Amino acid sequence: MRKLVILAMLLCGAVSGAYAQINSSPVPFTFVGWNDGNWQNGYPYYVQAGTNSTEIDVMCDDYVHGGMPGDQWMANITDLGTGNLTLVRFNNIIGPNSLYDLMLYDEAGWLLLETQLEPSSQWVYMNSAVWTIFDPSAPCDSTCQAWMSAAQRSIRGLPQSFYDDVYIITPSGINQHNPDPHSIQEFMYIGQASSGTGAGTDAPQTTPEPGTLVLMGTGVLALFGRKFLN
């Protein structure tokens, strides 16, 4: 079991009381690698934060963009609980979902938080659901679709503070919406606003509920195409 990673230094200046605001300046990140070495495995990916090599378990919410181990970049950190999407990547969605950017991030945030309760065998489907939330062209099988539906139902009536421990890592620079697939992706992670503690693969695993058992009975997720470019 992986130890809980400590994010206090990363969040220094970003955490205030029970709520963390958008960080005042970009933070350096280094991409470490993927779950079992394959990006298709989804959550968790691994990045190092700040200058102290703190490793964080992160979920990629960005199917179009890619990255390779060793990539380094500067990023802004946004606490989803604030509802402030000024610095995030998907705050300019065009089309029928253009008025619901916060709703889409809330759905993704709910799925990320739910990984603390679901067995790791479900995480690949949950991450695929997050990819599809922001990019309907991303591959999504029936299990992935079921998780999307669960997220849509579950966020109804939840206060924005429910997402206080969900943080978004968005590459900073002139164009946070950079369409170049070679540019680094956006990530999300779980942190504790009151303690600066990160969670991920160390999250407690509970016995799945009947609904989860149904999800687990579906076929293996098939992901096609190549997201990460050399």
Could you walk me through the main structural features you see in this protein, from its secondary elements to its overall organization?
The structure is a single chain. By secondary structure, this protein is an alpha+beta fold. The protein has one domain. It has helices at residues 101-114, 123-134, 142-154, 210-216; strands at 15-16, 19-20, 27-33, 45-49, 54-60, 72-79, 166-171, 187-191, 198-199. It has a six-stranded antiparallel barrel with strand order 3-4-5-8-7-6. Helix 1 (101-114) runs antiparallel to helix 2 (123-134), helix 1 (101-114) packs across helix 3 and helix 2 packs across helix 3. The longest helix is centred in the middle third of the chain and has 14 residues, at 101-114. The protein is globular.
Proportion of residues in helical segments: 10-25%
Largest sheet: 6 strands, antiparallel, barrel
Radius of gyration: 16 Å
What is the CA–CA distance across the termini? Answer: 32 Å
How much of the residues is beta strand, in percent?
15-25%
Shape: globular
**Quaternary structure:** single chain
Count of β-strands: 9
Catalogue the unreliable spans. 1-23, 193-230
**Sequence of strands across the biggest β-sheet:** 3-4-5-8-7-6
SS content category: alpha+beta
Topology:
Elements: E1 15-16, E2 19-20, E3 27-33, E4 45-49, E5 54-60, E6 72-79, H1 101-114, H2 123-134, H3 142-154, E7 166-171, E8 187-191, E9 198-199, H4 210-216
Antiparallel strand pairs: 1-2, 3-4, 3-6, 4-5, 5-8, 6-7, 7-8, 8-9
